[in-house]
Amino acid sequence: MRFPLTLRARLVLAFALVSVPALLLLSAVTFGYVQRAYVNIKAQEVVSQVMNNVQAHYRANGTLAGLHPQEIPVAPAGAPVQMGHPDSPPPYLVLDPQRRVVVGVTGYPAGTVLDGAVQPILVDGQTIAYLYATGTPPTLDAQSRALLTRSGWLLAGLVTAVAGLAVLSGALLARRFLAPLGVLQDGVHRLTLGQSPRLHGAMPDGEWGELFRAFGAMTAELERRRIADRQFGADIAHELGTPLAVLRGTVEAMQDGTLPATPERLGRLQIQLSHLLHLSGDLRLLWLADAGDLRLNCENVTVTALLTDVQDAFRSAASERGVILDGPAVILPTALLDPVRITQVLHNLVQNALNHTPSGGRVTLTADQPAPGTLRIVVRDTGRGMAPEQLERVFDRLYRADDSRAAPGSGLGLSIARSLVAAHGGTLTLSSAPGAGTEATVTLPLSSTGDHL
């Protein structure tokens, strides 16, 4: 059965998996070094004892003959003497000046000549013998073994304490490191409940700070959209409710005979019905775009001809308003796009420009290629322009500036235009300033990247 581990538990486990093996390895190396150093010290004690015994024997007898095995100890003073061990020789052998074994032991009979590294044993400056190391370590006494055992346990306890401290430090660091994550989790949980998240506390630094700022920007955008959607719903209810109320009142008055069904009144009803049908069509188009189900009938279109058709469609309206309408003066290549949808976009932009340009002004429709594979269409007017606060909301659905409320339309045109351009893989941007006119820029790829049939 698997138990899910939290991120904090995984970090603590990672600290433990890194620190504990490292501490164990360090302790093993340290204990091995201490043990070897201690054995070497004891070996030097044995060497000193052997040399002292051989020198004393030579001074007393004037020869090495008669040297007893007990005078060549296998352990420091106080340790048990175990000469003649059947499996291993003593740590050291005494050789005469001709490098012959003086006292024979297992594996080294007396008189055997040995080569190799030796230590001279001197008496009055004269070499009387050599000390030969067999490689067998000296026997440690019980006290020495107990000391090494206590040292090992002490080191093990120290390692355990340090490992526990390392794991505890890892837990504290993990808690401190993951504290911002808890704040974000609480914020996400509040978002799922439809509440506004609260990023309390100081803003962290580094990557956490970037994540907090991104989360804050996201929640601010979600809040803005939530408010906009609520306002959109209210505006839709108003936009639908007003003409429906007029229609209902007029029809009821005609039914009870209060108002005669004259052609003029029927014509006004037809206008209201047309407005409702147009509004419902715009809403359906926006819903399709939001759902990603907006389909384009793309084909290779001559851009110059398309722009000329748009200019011709508004030439009469511009003339009636006393506005000069200029068209493109360059020959542009073909582009893969939906001519009906792009024409709808340009009609909306040109109509808006005419609505906000006074008599004697100018509306210019131009196009160029700012980069290979990119088409840019610009609709520029010399109208009143927009204030920054209006420009920020111009793409909001059903938004209409105060000076444009008298103009026809539902206030969905720019939202629809931006959705149609985005479906082609392009962008629609507006730039404006009070008294400086407005410039709408449509940027499209010559080969459409949007969905199409």
Automatic annotation (TrEMBL):
It comes from the Bacteria. Residues 432-453 are annotated as: Disordered. The keyword Kinase applies. The chain crosses the membrane at residues 153-174. GO terms for cellular component: plasma membrane. Coiled coil: none annotated. It catalyses: ATP + protein L-histidine = ADP + protein N-phospho-L-histidine. Residues 175-227 form the HAMP domain. InterPro entries: HAMP_dom (IPR003660), HATPase_C_sf (IPR036890), HATPase_dom (IPR003594), His_kinase_dom (IPR005467), HisK_dim/P_dom (IPR003661), HisK_dim/P_sf (IPR036097), Sig_transdc_His_kin-like_C (IPR004358), TCS_sensor_his_kinase (IPR050428). Residues 235-448 form the Histidine kinase domain. GO terms for molecular function: phosphorelay sensor kinase activity. This is histidine kinase. It is found in: Membrane. Keywords: Kinase, Membrane, Phosphoprotein, Transferase, Transmembrane, Transmembrane helix, Two-component regulatory system. Residues 440-453 have a biased composition (Polar residues). Its EC number is 2.7.13.3. PANTHER family: SENSOR HISTIDINE KINASE TRCS, SENSOR HISTIDINE KINASE YKOH. The keyword Transferase applies.
